[in-house]
Design a protein that fits this description.
Elements (H helix, E strand, L loop, with lengths): L1 E2 H4 L22 H11 L12 E3 L6 H17 L8 E5 L2 H17 L6 H5 E3 L11 E6 L11 H10 L10 H10 L1 E12 L9 H10 L1 E7 L14 E7 L6 E5 L5 H12 L10 E3 L13 H13 L19 H4 L10 E7 L2 E7 L3 H9 L4 E7 L3
Parallel strand pairs: 1-4, 2-3, 2-5, 3-4, 5-6, 7-9
Antiparallel strand pairs: 6-8, 7-8, 9-10, 11-12, 11-13
Helix pairs in contact: 2-3, 2-9, 3-4
The structure holds S-adenosylmethionine (SAM).
């Protein structure tokens, strides 16, 4: 088994946090991992022993074991030469590494292959500091989300020194994406499930520019309301497929069903040369330099661009925009209140406009909100009427 800390004198001695939350240990559901492998085209009907795939933070091995099953099935059909180069997987946490290493060895032995392949494939260490020889035809996984405040200062300084996109308050997944893209072969594809915040926010700007200038954002699936992980997290995840090809339009899907059969079908549709008429897939030119990416229809985008041209931004108009209060502990602060009214509906008229409101807040609270707004009046309807 390899340890990247043994391989180079240049790797600094740094203390990594061990707690699961401090190293971003949120594991992917197996059907989502299989789906991402389908999306990037890592399928056993191809001679996979001639291709190289990288999993940069393999955790308990949900991607790695799926990769291995596909690789061995393909190898039986197409050949086994070069198998020792076919996979690279990295994991930081020693106990997690150990457990997954043994799972890989067990699967190799069960399928009649040499257990020593695992020693070529798996590396224990920090993906962002490890020497790794590219290029790779595929990079897949779910990189760790770790806020900048949770990264020890010496380590953070080293990451910033190595990764140009890690600026401002960039989360750990930002340099993971940068390094993974930089290791892609010509025509190769990266498929990550990852927080989508960087597609629009300030700290994502340099990574957006890097992608827009050098790669093709082929597929974007908004997974914000889909249970893509094995634990409950508020991470706004998205699946992105980015290839080392000339930039072009993006195929966009919002909130796909996670039924395995439907995921298989969706992957076929998304990989096809032409899309069926009237399906759930939208196509739009999304990447545009460092500017925020808009996953909207062309006419909505044209409207937004017109508004941007004609009007100053809120900040240019003198307003200060902040992120507001974030407790980081929703479970403590968001609860169903035993004293509140059951869900009630109101029709609110305000100036010339009217809209319907459905809320579990007490009628008293809503009345006081609108009482402070001249010209606004709610009329009440109880649920079910
Ligand atoms: C979000 S989990 C994903 C695990 C697995 N890929 C999956 O999809 O279930 C991220 C993993 O990255 C590991 N990790 C955190 N920092 C790392 C680093 N710098 N280098 C390599 N692995 C790291 C964590 O220990 C954790 O197992």
């Amino acid at each position: 088994m390899l340890s990247c800390f043994d391989q180079t004198q240049a790797t600094p001695v740094v203390q990594h946090p061990a707690a699961p939350s401090a190293r971003g240990a949120v594991f992917t559901r197996p059907e989502v991992a299989e789906f991402i492998l389908d999306l990037v085209g890592y399928t056993p009907d191809r001679p996979l022993h001639q291709q190289r795939i990288l999993e940069p933070s393999f955790g308990d091995g949900v991607f790695l074991l799926a990769i291995l099953r596909r690789l061995l099935s393909s190898a039986r059909r197409f050949g086994t030469s070069g198998l020792s180069e076919a996979i690279r997987g990295v994991e930081l946490h020693p106990e997690t590494f150990e457990a997954t290493y043994h799972a890989v060895v067990a699967l190799l032995q069960q399928e009649g292959f040499s257990k020593h392949l695992a020693d070529h494939w798996l590396i224990q260490g920090d993906y962002l500091l490890c020497p790794l020889e590219g290029p790779f035809h595929y990079v897949v996984g779910n990189p760790p989300y770790v806020r900048v405040e949770a990264i020890p200062p010496t380590l953070l300084a080293e990451y910033r020194r190595r990764y140009a996109t890690m600026h401002d308050r960039a989360d750990l997944y930002i340099p993971f994406i940068e390094r993974s893209l930089s290791l892609l072969a010509e025509g190769g594809a990266l498929g990550f499930i990852c927080a989508d915040r960087w597609a629009k926010n300030r700290y994502g700007a340099l990574l957006r520019k890097y992608v827009a200038d050098n790669f093709h954002l082929k597929i974007y699936l908004d997974m914000a309301h889909a249970p893509a992980f094995r634990s409950k997290v508020a991470a706004y995840p998205a699946i992105m497929v980015i290839s080392r090809e000339a930039p072009g339009p993006t195929r966009i899907v919002h909130h796909p069903s996670l039924e395995p059969d439907q995921l298989t079908q969706l992957a076929q549709v998304l990989r096809a040369d032409t899309l069926p008429e009237g399906g759930a897939v939208r196509v739009a030119q999304v990447t545009r330099g460092a500017a925020p990416w808009l996953f909207v229809a062309p006419e909505q985008r044209a409207l937004l661009e017109r508004l941007e041209r004609r009007f100053p931004s809120l900040e240019e108009a003198g307003c200060r925009v902040g992120i507001g209060v974030a407790t980081g502990a929703d479970q403590a602060f968001i609860a169903s209140c035993p004293w509140s009214h059951p869900r009630i509906s109101a029709r609110v008229r305000c100036g010339g406009a009217a809209w319907a409101l459905s809320t579990p807040l007490a009628r008293r609270v809503i009345s006081s909100i609108f009482a402070a707004t001249p010209g606004c009046a709610p009329t009440w309807r109880r649920a079910g009427r």
